[in-house]
């Protein structure tokens, strides 16, 4: 299930200003507190997150629902496995 226009994430994580590997480490911790199927929205501005977050999701079995860029801010929607 993909989030619709009216849906909101179950939790949000502001990883702006953090450099690799901190955005992924904080996402892992936050996702661990969610129930399977819940969605985390994370914002980051570390350019390495474009590679690190999808790789983390693939390795951990989480679904990367969306990755978008607005200026230097990357927004990820991750569904917990």
SSE blueprint and pairings:
Blueprint: E1 11-15, H1 22-32, E2 39-44, H2 49-60, E3 63-70, E4 73-79
Parallel strand pairs: 1-2
Antiparallel strand pairs: 2-4, 3-4
Compact description:
This protein has 81 residues and is an alpha+beta fold. The protein has helices spanning 22-32, 49-60; strands at 11-15, 39-44, 63-70, 73-79.
Commentary on this structure:
The chain has a single domain, classed as Translation Initiation Factor IF3 (2-Layer Sandwich). The radius of gyration is 11 Å and the shape is globular. It is of the alpha+beta class and about 80 residues long. A hairpin with a 2-residue loop joins strand 3 and strand 4 (about 75-80). It has helices at about 20-30, 50-60, and strands spanning about 10-15, 40-45, 65-70, 75-80.
Largest sheet: 4 strands, mixed
Apparent shape? globular
Give helix % range.
Answer: 25-40%
Calculate the mean pLDDT score and round it: 93
* Total count of helical runs of at least 4 residues: 2
Secondary-structure element order, N to C = EHEHEE
* Beta content: 25-35%
Indicate the CATH class: Alpha Beta
CATH fold-level name: Translation Initiation Factor IF3
Radius of gyration: 11 Å
What's the architecture in CATH terms? 2-Layer Sandwich
Structural class: alpha+beta
How many domains comprise the coordinates? 1
* CATH-assigned homologous superfamily: TusA-like domain
List keywords for this structure.
81 residues, alpha+beta, Translation Initiation Factor IF3, four-stranded mixed sheet, 2 helices
């Amino acid at each position: 299930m993909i989030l619709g226009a009216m849906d909101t994430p179950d939790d949000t994580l502001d990883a702006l200003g953090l450099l690799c590997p901190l955005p992924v480490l904080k996402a892992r911790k936050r996702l661990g507190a969610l129930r399977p199927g819940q969605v985390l929205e994370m914002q980051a501005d570390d350019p390495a997150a474009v590679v690190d977050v999808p790789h983390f999701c693939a390795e951990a079995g989480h679904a990367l629902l969306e990755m978008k860029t607005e200026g230097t801010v990357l927004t990820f929607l991750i569904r917990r496995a």
